[in-house]
Amino acid sequence: MTNKQKKYLSDIEIAREANMLPIQNMADKLGIPEEHIITYGKHRAKISRAYLESDRKTNNGKLILVAGITPTKAGEGKTTTSVGLGDGLNKIGKNVAICLREPSLGPCFGMKGGAAGGGQSQVVPMEEINLHFNGDFHAIGAAHNLLSAMIDNHIYWGNELNIDIRKISWGRVMDMNDRALRETTAALGGVFNGFPRSDHFDITVASEVMAIFCLANDLKDLQERLGEIVVAESLDGKDIYARDLKAVGAMTALLKDAIQPNLVQTMEGTPCLIHGGPFANIAHGCNSVIATRTALEHADYVVTEAGFGADLGAEKFFDIKMRQSGLKPDMAIIVATIRALKMHGGVEDNSLSLENVEAVELGFANLKRHVMNTRKFGVPVMVAINSFVGDTEAERACLIKLCEKVGIEIVESNHWAEGSSGSEDLAKAVIKMLDEQPSKFDFLYNSHISLWNKTHTIALELYGADDIIADTKVRAKFANFQKKYGDLPVCIAKTPLSFSTDPLLKGAPSGHVIPIMDLRLSHGARFIVVICGNIMTMPGLPRRPAAENIYVNEQGCIEGLF
Predict the structure, then answer these.
(1) Are 280 and 71 in contact (CB under 8 A)?
(2) Does the pLDDT of residue 199 top 90, yes or no?
(3) Alpha helices for 266-392 (secondary structure H)
(4) Which tens digits make up the pLDDT trace of 433-451?
(5) Are 458 and 374 members of one domain?
(6) DSSP state of 216
(7) Do residues 95 and 78 share a domain?
(8) Over the range 359-398, which residues count as b (16 or more CB within 10 Å of their CB) and which as e?
(9) How confident is the model at residue 533 (pLDDT cuts 50, 70, 90)?
(10) pTM > 0.85: yes or no
């Protein structure tokens, strides 16, 4: 079957045609001994903790970040590009590994679909990766909810810690979109059920346990960070920690296997580590430090991704993940599509198939700002255009000319339709940039400046804002957090759909003001969440959720997953 014919198949149909290799073949490519591969069937595995914590000779690979422009309904394809680039590097003979986030069930059954790439650039086995995978998210949800149960149980049996039930910040989680659980009342039904109080559910990827899981260096660090989670205040205003409730040991026990990174492969046999998946808004939106470090120790080139647009995802990758891990990126790629640029140029989604060079030119402002922003971190930056069949020659020529005019290197890639054959040019350009332009990576801000100034710096330098504002109550919270946690980085939670806090404001708006609504402490994850606007940590399903089209056929195969 030709690539032209395959492009009309669904992602799951294309994935099923992959000739998957035994998972030990992927371990062999990375030099990981067979005795340290814990298999989950023939095509997926975990790498043992004993091996990762052992003394051994390790590699020092180059770290390549794939980020994107401001997201649109048209799609940008960061994961697909990450997979395509990894396959392209593999095709030209490089020792490469890919590091991705694990998909959440909520988006799979909601509107976004899975997160295993697309077309000819996918990680497989696609169904298992998107549904349950190796059980990590279930373990994280169980650890989170165990702590929730122990809070209410402690109060029921006398409340020795003097917890103020009005100031319990730790809710419950589930890995599903369910708006009805955003605000709840717990412990109804009489004295035997405890003390009634307000409660809430978040989606599992928004849990601080997830963020800790992805930032921890090893099991010991994970346990220490879990103990630092602040769950409530006492009646006399003191912080109550998870360690105070003696929950940490059991939480760690639930996570001891999950902390081992998962190993799978692309459709073309490139090793891929998929591990962790924190919410790219309330948290930092990157795969685990453990997986990234493992890949860098075993491959010469490591391709990884960041959530949302580069203003949120790449900034958090640099200022939170890199700061805490001590790792350093060697270059960054900003993914864009001509379709998405046309949306930023004012085109509605029902008109994207029509040629519109003027809209490409207008939408280029968004791409340009993301590139210029990313350069502020001292890393070489390249633009990868994720090609679509409907892109016209005039639109392509316009975009290339715009990039060349301002000194932005741009490479077209057709990995979705052609796999590594379509990404070979991108792979060669990446190697050339790595060889010729050494990274001078640095953080956007110094950890010793105030939390307010950290937020102000991001807003002005990356969002194009004129200022940040907050009411007296929020400013008082800034002052309080500054005294206790002033050296922590900030994690901005705002709409990913605009540089501003207005999701309808496309392109590259300037001169706006960023309103700060609240601060939240993620003490175990070691960052401060700065909430700008109405941030949803428990999504809802759309009018026609993807779940309506998913079923199991007569042969026992899943259909409708994308």
Answers:
(1) no
(2) yes
(3) 289-298, 313-316, 323-325, 338-344, 357-375
(4) 999 999 999 999 999 999 9
(5) no
(6) -
(7) yes
(8) bbbbbbbbbbbbbebbeebbbbbbbbbbbbeebeeebbeb
(9) confident
(10) yes
364: nearest Cα among 395, 402, 333: 402
Output the domain CATH number for residue 149.
3.30.1510.10
Domain with 39 in it: what CATH number? 3.40.50.300
At which of 413, 436, 459 does a domain end? Answer: 436
The span from the CA of 515 to the CA of 511, in Å, is 13
Q: How many CA atoms lie within 13 A of 80 on its CB side?
A: 26
Q: Are residue 431 and residue 289 in the same domain, yes or no?
A: yes
Phi-psi region of 216 (alpha: psi -120 to 50; beta: other; left: phi over 0): beta
112 pLDDT higher than 60: yes
> What does the pLDDT look like over 66-80, one tens digit per residue?
999 999 887 778 999
Q: What range does the domain containing 189 cover?
A: 136-252
Residue 403 has pLDDT above 80, yes or no: yes
For residue 524, what is the domain's CATH number? 3.10.410.10
Contact in structure between 214 and 193 (CB atoms under 8 Å): no
Same domain, yes or no: 129 and 143: no
Same domain, 288 and 310: yes
273 three-state secondary structure? strand
The set of catalytic residues is 78, 80, 101, 112, 280, 308, 388, 416
CA distance 455 to 467: 10
420 and 476 housed in the same domain: no
SS3 495: coil
pLDDT, tens only, 81-101: 999 999 999 999 999 999 999
Q: How many domains is the chain partitioned into structurally?
A: 3
Mean pLDDT of the region 519-536? 94
Residue range 256-282: mean pLDDT, rounded: 96
Is 537 inside a domain boundary?
A: no
Asked whether residue 555 is domain-assigned, the answer is no
Distances (CA, A) of 56 to 47, 273, 294, 297, 300: 15, 20, 12, 10, 17
Q: Per-residue pLDDT for 3 more than 60?
A: no
Report residue 301 as tokens.
């080139």
Between CA 209 and CA 454 the distance in angstroms is 24
Nearest CA-CA partner of 274 in 375, 129, 151: 129
**Cα 214 from Cα 258, distance rounded (Å):** 11
At a CB cut-off of 8 Å and minimum separation 6, what does 19 contact?
Answer: none
User: Model confidence at 322, in pLDDT bands (50, 70, 90)?
Assistant: very high
Q: What is the mean pLDDT of the chain?
A: 94
